[in-house]
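Re: duplicated header lines in exported C-alpha cells

Our pipeline writes sequence and C-alpha cells for each protein into one text file. With two proteins the header for the second block appears twice in some exports. Here is an export where it did not happen, for reference. First protein block:
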Amino acid sequence: MVAFGRRAIAKLAESLHSSDGDLLASSLADLKALLSNQESKMEAIHNDTLVPSLVALLEKPDHTAGAADCIASLSLVCQGRAAVKDAFAVAALEALLPSSSVSAASALLSLSLSRDGCAILLESATLVGSLTDALSRASADLKRPCLAALANLLSQPAAAEQALRAGLVTHLGKLVDVSEEEEVVETALQALCNLSNTRAGKEAVVGAGILPSLGAMAAKGGAAVKQRAAGTLMALAIGEGRQLPDECIRPLVLLADSDDEETARNAVAALRSSSEDPPTRRRIVRCAAELGKEPSSLVFDNQPWPHSERFLSQRALVSQ
C-alpha cells in the first residue's frame, strides 16, 4: 500500500482482478485500512471498477469477509451508498445471510444507519424476511448486526409491514428475556418500539403477549434497557388508550421519577396515555398511592414537562 503512494486506490482496484488468492487478501486488507479516511473513500467511490469488483468478490468464500468489510466502510457516506446500490450489492449481501456471514450482515447494518440507506435496502422485498430468518439460527455474533439492521429498518412503514408478514414479533418476544445479553435485549426493544409506532404493529405486539416481558425489563433491566422498555410501552399506549397490565404499571410508576430524563418522559407518557381508560387510571392511582407517590403527576395535567399532558402528542414523542 505504501509503495503505491497517491495511486494506492487505483492500484488496489486493479489488483482486485487478480487470480492470486494471497494478493487478493492483502489488497482487501490494505483497501480496508485506506478506507478509514474520507479522502480515500471518495477516490474509491469514483473508481469505476472498484465497487463492482468488491461485489464480485463476495461470491468467493475466502474473500467474502474482506470485500464485505470494504463495502460496509464505503456505505458510511452518501456517495458510497449510491455506488453500492448501482453495483447491486444488497442482493449479493442478502444472499450470504443463510451462510451466517457476519461481515455481510455488518455491511447491511452500515447501510441501515441512514434514511437513504434504509430506502436502498427496502428496494429488496425479501430483505426483512431474510434478516428475520437469520435471527432464528444466528450465533450471537450474527444476531447483533441482523437485529440492529432490523431495528433501523423498522423506522420505515414499509419495513414494518414486511416484518409483520415475516413473523418478526415472535422472534423479538423471545429476545426480550433476562437470559439474553443486555445489548441484544436493548436492540430488540428498539425494534419493538419502532414497530409499535404503527397500528398493525401495536396489535401484533400486544397479541403476542409480550407486555409482561416489557414490564419485567422496565423493572429489572439496566439503565438503557429500562429506558427502551418504557419507550416501547409508551409507543404501545399512545393513540390507542391501551390498558396496560399491572406488571407494566408498577415499574412505570417507579420510572416516572427516574434521574434519566428520557426514561422519565417515556414512563410518564405511557401512564398518561393508558390513563385515558378509567379502570386503568384507577389502577395507576392506586399503585402510586401504594408506592407513596403523588398520583396527580402521573395522570393529571398540573405539572411541567415531562409531566404535562399538553406535550404528549404522538408526533412529538415519536420524533424524540
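Second protein block, exported in the same file:
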Amino acid sequence: MKVLAVLYDGGKAAQEEPRLLGTTENKLGIADWLKERGHELIVTSDKEGPDSVFQKELPEAEVLITTPFHPGYLTADLIKNKAHKLKLCITAGVGSDHVDLNAANEKKITVAEVSGSNVVSVAEHVIMDILLLVRNFVPAHEMIERGDWNVSQIARNAYDLEGKVVGTIGAGRIGYRVLQRLVPFNCKELLYFDYNELPEADAKAVGARRVTDIQEFVAQCDVVTVNAPLHEGTRGLINADLLKHFKKGAWIVNTARGAIVDRRDIAAALASGHINGYAGDVWDVQPAPKDHPWRKMKNVLGGGNGMVPHYSGTTLDAQLRYANGAKSILENYLDGKPQEPGNLIVENGQYATRNSGRQSFTDKAGAALKPDSQKSTTEHIGDTIKGNADSMASTLQPNESKSDSQKLGDTFSGNSNENKESLFQQAKNAIGLGENRTQDTH
C-alpha cells in the first residue's frame, strides 16, 4: 500500500531537531513503522500543479496525509480524475478545508483529523497576538533593531488590555480556551458570537455574554478574535461590509483560517486607520505569495501588523500530539478498526455527526452572517460560498492556469438562482462556528 504525505520542508532546523515531526525530514515519525509493516511512504513538499510530486503520486496512493500548515489541496477535480485508489485522507492537525468534502463523500473517501491536538497551542498564540497588538510591541522591537529609541513614538499607540471589550467569533475548543485565558486580564467584558450557546455554567465560569447578531457583536468589541472553522458560511465573513460595523481603532486576531477574512479589505481598513491592527498566522493561500498584502500592510502610524507563518498549532508539543494522532488513525485503518468518532469529518459517503454541537449554518445564519439584510437566504449562501469546492465540479470548469489552492478560492458568482438553491441544500452539511467547544480550526 502506498501512503502519500504532503509536509513542509524543515531544512537544517528539522535535521537538528527531530521533534519537528511535521516536516519532510522527520516524516511524522512513521517512516520506519510503515516500512516494518510492508508499506510504502512517499513524502514531499512539492504540491502545486500537475507536475508536482503530489499529483504524480496521487493516482497510486491509498492514503493521503497532509497538514494545515502546508496543505495538499485535494480538489474535486483531483478526487475525480487522479485519486483513483484513495480511501483515506488524514489531516495531521485540525481543519480539513483543504479537501473537497462533497467530492470525498461521493467517492466514499474517509476524511479524518487529529481533533484537539492544537487547542492549547493556538489559544496561547491568540493571547500573545492580542497583547502584541494592544501594546504596540512589533514597532517597538523594530525600533530597537534599527538602533533607535523614541518612547513617545511607541507609547502613542500602546494600551492596556484591562478595561477592553474582547470578543471571539466561535466559542469552541479554542475560542473557549481563549476566553478562559482572558479572565485574569480584567477585561471590561468578554463576548462571543456563536450559533450555539455555551452551557450556562461554562459561560458563567468565564463571565462571557453571547451576542447573536454579528454586526452588533463587532460594534461592541475593542478586540475581535476569530476562532471558527472555514466553511461556506464563514468564507469571506469579515469583509468591507462587516468592517464598517467595527469600532474605529479595533484590533483583529485570526488564527483560524485566512479565507474567513477578505485579504484586500483588511489591508485597506488597516491602512485607512479604521482598524488599528491585524495579527495571526493563517493566510488564504499557504505558503503565502511574496506579494501578499498582509506581509507588509501597516496602520496609519506604521505598525499594527502581527502576521507570521502558520505555526500557532504546530509547536513541538502540538507536533507530538498530531503525529501520534495521525499514526493512530492510520493504524486503525490498517488494522480494520473503527476510527475515534471525534476525529471523523466524512465517512461512508456521509458527513460524520461527530460533535454534539454540529448543526447546519443554514438553520440560523440567514441575515446574521452577512450585513445586507435585504438579501434572501440563498443569496447569502451564494455570496459566502466563493467556490469552497461544494458542487463546483458540476457548475464550474477547472482553470488549468490556476494552482489547486486558487481553484478552491474561485468565486461563486455567475450561477443561477437554481444553482444557488441547490448549493443551499448541500450547505446543510456545513458545520457551525464553535460547536460548544468541540470544533477546532488548525
